[in-house]
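Sample 1 of the test manifest.
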Amino acid sequence: MVKLFIDPGHGGSDPGAVANGLQEKNLTLSIAIALRDYLTSHYQDISIRMSRTSDQSIALSERTRMANQWGADFYLSIHINAGGGVGFESYIWNRQFTNKSRTQQLRSTIHQAIIRQTDWRDRGQKEANFHVLRETTMPAILTENGFIDHQEEARSMRKSNWIDQVAEAHAIGIAEAFHLKTNTAPPTQNGQTLYRVVAGSFIHERNAREQINALQNKGYDSYVLPYREQNQTYFRVVAGAFNQRSNAENRLKALKNDGFDGFIVVV
Ligand SMILES: [Zn+2]
């Protein structure tokens, strides 16, 4: 069980950075909630607590106290940048400390996954003497997710899928860093061989969801199955699973007649 503490930056009387009609505290909370929901619905053996789940004022010392007292395995603080720049950067504590090499390793995996899963310019893996990085007793990182005062980035922040995309990118990074197992899809029967018909494989889950809608319109039930290959997570759309290869081949043929590409994987 991995105990993850998610800290949405700012809140209540502290809005954080404010620009272009947006407040940092609202974006960080939305990302944190989406991240929590994404991780708990997609992965096994993860327990999550948050420093806040609403628009509350919470002192930095209270945030780190909560995580330390719980005995979290990892502390993730989510922020939005400001001050005239563009892109993504992450921080760990800038001193020598017990968990430093482990912290560097976890941060590097998560940072790289976020860059890979998004269109962000990589501003680098940085270090700073922030309270939440210094006063936590477990590996801790802080992410700065785009610039609220950059007009173009602010425009994308207002789109509904931006929050989901940032949350998904963090989730994939965390899953890779902690080797989380994905939730099992409809189970195989008593260890029998299963032939899954995959109708598309996507880097972004939202594209997999669109494919599911398209399949649904043609009368095919399908579901998403995350799949990891060579450090990249793909979202496979499974449109049928069969104990007989011939049944899987028939399904694949039907899908192709309806204009879907696909392939069979043997489980
Ligand atoms: Zn902040």
